[in-house]
């Protein structure tokens, strides 16, 4: 296991380099001038613009800019924003909000999604299965910003159960945005759990276990369910990084000062470091989440070996 983890960590290095190269190229190719709008409605003095472009190396060729950024990245410098704050400072303030938001969404999709999928799989073709199927199809057909707006209207304004915006970024204020963010992933984890469980319940080893006198509950809980969770764990692990990166719409809708809002502002203001730095961190989180999922494989199924 130790060799496997070391090998996977070493494989992350070229992945991160390729990711930063692609991200920096996309940010470099964005239309617009980063110096536009720095002085409000007035045009900035030519001397100030020249000094600004020289300070941020905006006139250098693409590969010179990228190598300079990569060198700073190796030394832990993710760049400086137009407001004078470093990206590291912004990440330190905003990252906890996005992490808490993603954790709430993952817990929601894991607990509720798997529970609903298990009930639907056990009661295949029954009322609960039909109800769960209709509910997941409804979630899949509605965009996240519509679900968020309806949640704000019903649970925030009409019922007053939750604050409409995130406010101070506390867990309670992030609860409704987290549930909205995890709504789509909930539908996928529910359907995946249900499909995987139904397939395993028809397997020969489950029928053999029942034939030997094992109760239906133990046959499902010990044998079928354990094997059914492998694809679900894979999806949930991969979705954690996706939820953090896909929180841009949710964070903007609920005014959450997180990574997604930082990236959104970086796109509007043409700030390359505000895009490349945070997204690189999200990629690293995604890679680590997948590594944890691979390690959990051996826990759930001892037949899987990484040696």
Task: Describe this protein's structure.
The protein is mostly helical. The protein has 13 helices and no strands. Helix 8 (183-201) runs antiparallel to helix 10 and helix 9 (204-211) packs antiparallel against helix 10 (216-245). The protein starts with a helix and ends in a 7-residue tail after the last helix. The model has no long low-confidence stretch (mean pLDDT 79).
Helix and strand topology:
Blueprint: H1 2-28, H2 46-55, H3 62-74, H4 87-122, H5 127-141, H6 144-158, H7 171-181, H8 183-201, H9 204-211, H10 216-245, H11 248-253, H12 259-268, H13 273-300
Helix pairs in contact: 1-13, 4-5, 4-7, 4-8, 4-10, 5-8, 6-7, 8-10, 9-10, 10-13, 12-13
Structural class based on helices, strands and sheet pairing:
mainly alpha
Number of strands: 0
Radius of gyration: 24 Å
- The helix-strand sequence is HHHHHHHHHHHHH
User: Helix content range of the residues, please?
Assistant: over 70%
Assembly form of the protein = single chain
Which residues sit in consecutive blocks of at least 5 with pLDDT less than 50? none
Summarize model confidence as the mean pLDDT.
79
Individual helix count = 13
Biggest β-sheet strands, sense, barrel: none
From the N-terminal CA to the C-terminal CA, the straight-line distance is: 6 Å
Shape: globular
How much β-strand is present in the residues? Answer: under 5%
